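User: I've been trying to design a sequence by hand for this structure and keep getting stuck. Would you show me what you'd pick, starting by listing the structure so we're on the same page?

Assistant: Good idea, let's start from the same input. This is the structure you sent:
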């Protein structure tokens, strides 16, 4: 097995949420980091195997593309407003790690895992 990882990121000015899914579609990790270059470098240097990153086009996308491209196998920047399949697809994340509705004070507040 090649140890393939698919990484999705929700990037905001101060905090980024990173979800890593393996090739079987199982969530491997869900991590919050401060949106700083060194934090991204440290995080992605710590991943093993083939890593494919997807992020939404926005204020941070060009900067992140340049930062991550040398560290991972591929970086894809997508424009989700023009991709109807993204909104229609079920999330691969289990309910306990979905962002909570009405969490405007902390948009990255995640549901507890119950463990």
């Amino acid at each position: 097995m090649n140890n393939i990882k698919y990484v999705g990121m929700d990037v905001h000015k101060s905090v980024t949420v990173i979800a890593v899914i393996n090739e079987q579609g199982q969530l491997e990790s869900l991590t919050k980091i401060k949106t700083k270059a060194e934090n991204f470098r440290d995080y992605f240097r710590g991943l093993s195997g083939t890593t494919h990153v997807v992020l939404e086009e926005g204020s941070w996308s060009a900067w992140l593309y340049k930062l991550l491209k040398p560290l991972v196998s591929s970086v894809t920047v997508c424009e989700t407003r023009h991709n109807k399949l993204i909104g229609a697809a079920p999330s691969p994340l289990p309910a306990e790690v979905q962002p909570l509705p009405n969490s405007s004070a902390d948009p990255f507040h995640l549901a507890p895992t119950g463990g």
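That's my pick for every position. To get oriented when you compare it with your attempt: Confidence is low (pLDDT under 50) at residues 99-115. The chain has three helices and five strands.
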